[in-house]
């Protein structure tokens, strides 16, 4: 039975070694020789039931542009991604430096440090730990100094 496509394996079954020669006949059919006996083996693909899914009408989603209200006086720090507020590190009246961390936001199981875009005094903190925010939501307002 030895051909170019034959492979020889030694299999240990319950502590006893067997020499097995395997040759591919077709994609799913093989000839196997064990202990002088030859067998034809066919691989049977597993039957996976198909699900009938209803057709769903898909409507395009129009994303709203995020705009900062004109009534906010000062520098606005907004959420760069949707997430959950983990820690708020500033309060109104606190002085912050540019690039100073003002709060921690969790998004997709990662914690992001949200930093100040300028130096100044915290005028408003619009979130608290546990709040969920969307991209563009106002987190902190800073009065520039």
Question: What's a quick, concise take on this entry?
Answer:
This protein is mainly β and 145 residues long.
What does this structure look like?
There is one protein chain. The chain has two domains: 7-42, no CATH class; 75-144, RNA polymerase II/Efflux pump adaptor protein, barrel-sandwich hybrid domain (OB fold (Dihydrolipoamide Acetyltransferase, E2P)), CATH 2.40.50.100. It has no helices and twelve strands. The chain has strands spanning 7-13, 16-26, 29-34, 37-42, 75-78, 83-88, 95-96, 101-107, 110-115, 120-125, 132-133, 138-144. The protein has a four-stranded antiparallel sheet, with no helix packed on it. A hairpin with a 2-residue loop joins strand 1 (7-13) and strand 2. The mean pLDDT is 83.
């Amino acid at each position: 039975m030895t051909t170019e496509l034959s492979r020889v394996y030694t299999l240990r079954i319950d502590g006893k070694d067997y020499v097995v020669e395997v040759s591919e006949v077709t994609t799913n059919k093989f000839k196997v020789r064990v202990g002088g006996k030859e067998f034809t083996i066919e691989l049977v693909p597993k039957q996976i039931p198909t699900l009938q899914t209803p057709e769903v009408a898909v409507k395009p989603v129009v994303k709203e542009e995020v705009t900062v209200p004109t009534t906010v006086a000062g520098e606005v720090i907004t959420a760069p991604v949707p997430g959950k507020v983990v820690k708020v590190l500033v309060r109104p009246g606190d002085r912050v430096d540019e690039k100073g961390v003002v709060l921690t936001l969790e998004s997709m199981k990662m914690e992001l440090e949200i930093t100040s875009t300028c130096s100044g005094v915290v005028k408003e903190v619009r979130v608290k730990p546990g709040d969920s925010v969307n991209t563009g939501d106002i987190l902190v307002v800073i009065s520039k100094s």
